[in-house]
């Protein structure tokens, strides 16, 4: 292999290592970004679940105020709570679609609100504005309040399960993201070390493959200029390694040069022999 090709191959190996490191780090960065987006999503789901839970509690509180003759304040709280719950219900229904278990739990809460809490509030409003005497009215209102409070407690427990699950998802995503960050750091350090070691080793190997034969050829050339034409045997034993590169071509040229000198020397000796009487 020619020296130029060897240098090109070394460059390609180092480039491949750098590209592999870059690709791995890029992949880890993409995964970290995905995990961070998931963390944000889980936090938003948790916040909306808390808002829905607070809306149910506020709706219960507004019903209590309504039943305690604070009608305007109670109605305002109930209506405001219902608006918040409608907004959060739309968000949670859409974003829990990828998690059937949590969506099922949330739908149970919505069912409790729709089938138990809201009808209970409507019955209390009818009783409050009805014709029953005070004793009967407040007795029946209290019964409905107990039903609403029980349903609210059940809804709170189910929403707490949703929030606990999302908090666990957040923690898992944060831990996984940290693992990818640590892995990226380790890979970066490892690839830098590998590239440095590979660069040093290849430069030493290729450098020695070039400089040592050249130094030996220089010594041979120096001795040949001093008349030592037997250097062709040393050259054959120590330099003629047949690596297929330019050093081999230079070695062959040296061999031919030394042989030419030997032929020339033999011819000169022959001519001197003829000149003798």
Describe the structure in your own words.
With 277 residues, the protein is an all-alpha fold. It folds into two domains: 3-187, A middle domain of Talin 1 (Up-down Bundle); 197-275. 90% of the residues lie in helices and 0% in strands. It has six helices and no strands. The protein has helices spanning 3-67, 71-95, 100-128, 134-225, 231-238, 246-275. Helix 1 packs antiparallel against helix 2 (71-95). The longest helix is centred in the middle third of the chain and has 92 residues, at 134-225. The protein starts with a helix and ends with a helix. 19% of the residues are buried. The mean pLDDT is 81.
How are the SSEs ordered, and which strands pair?
Blueprint: H1 3-67, H2 71-95, H3 100-128, H4 134-225, H5 231-238, H6 246-275
At the first level of CATH, the class of the largest domain is Mainly Alpha
Which CATH-level-2 architecture of the largest domain? Up-down Bundle
Distance between the termini: 56 Å
**Radius of gyration (Å):** 45 Å
The overall pLDDT, averaged over residues, is 81
What fold name goes in the CATH topology slot of the largest domain? A middle domain of Talin 1
| Helical residue percent band | over 70%
DSSP summary, beta strand count: 0
How would you spell out the order of helices and strands?
Answer: HHHHHH
Largest sheet: none
Overall number of structural domains: 2
Structural class, from helix and strand content? mainly alpha
| Total DSSP helices | 6
Tell the overall outline: rod-shaped
How large is the share of residues in beta strands? under 5%
Low-confidence stretches: none
């Amino acid at each position: 292999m020619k020296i130029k090709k060897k240098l090109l191959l070394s460059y390609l190996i180092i480039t491949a290592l750098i590209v592999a490191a870059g690709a791995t780090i890029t992949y880890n960065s993409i995964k970290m970004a995905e995990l961070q987006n998931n963390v944000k999503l889980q936090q938003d789901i948790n916040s909306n679940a808390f808002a829905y839970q607070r809306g149910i509690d506020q709706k219960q509180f507004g019903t209590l105020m309504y039943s305690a003759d604070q009608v305007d304040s109670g109605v305002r709280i109930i209506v405001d709570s219902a608006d918040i719950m409608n907004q959060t219900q739309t968000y949670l229904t859409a974003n829990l679609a990828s998690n059937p278990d949590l969506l099922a739990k949330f739908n149970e809460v919505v069912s409790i609100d729709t089938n138990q809490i809201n009808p209970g509030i409507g019955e209390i409003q009818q009783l409050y504005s009805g014709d029953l005497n005070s004793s009967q009215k407040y007795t029946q209102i209290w019964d409905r309040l107990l039903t609403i409070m029980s349903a609210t407690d059940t809804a709170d427990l189910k929403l707490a399960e949703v929030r606990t699950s999302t908090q666990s998802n957040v923690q898992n995503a944060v831990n996984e993201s940290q693992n990818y960050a640590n892995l990226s750091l380790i890979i970066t350090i490892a690839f830098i070390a590998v590239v440095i070691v590979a660069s040093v080793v290849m430069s030493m190997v290729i450098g020695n493959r070039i400089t040592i034969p050249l130094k030996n050829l220089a010594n041979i050339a120096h001795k040949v200029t001093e008349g030592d034409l037997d250097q062709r045997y040393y050259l054959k034993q120590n330099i003629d390694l047949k690596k297929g590169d330019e050093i081999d071509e230079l070695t062959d040229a040296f061999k031919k040069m030394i042989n030419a000198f030997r032929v020339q020397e033999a011819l000169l000796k022959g001519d001197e022999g003829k000149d003798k009487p």
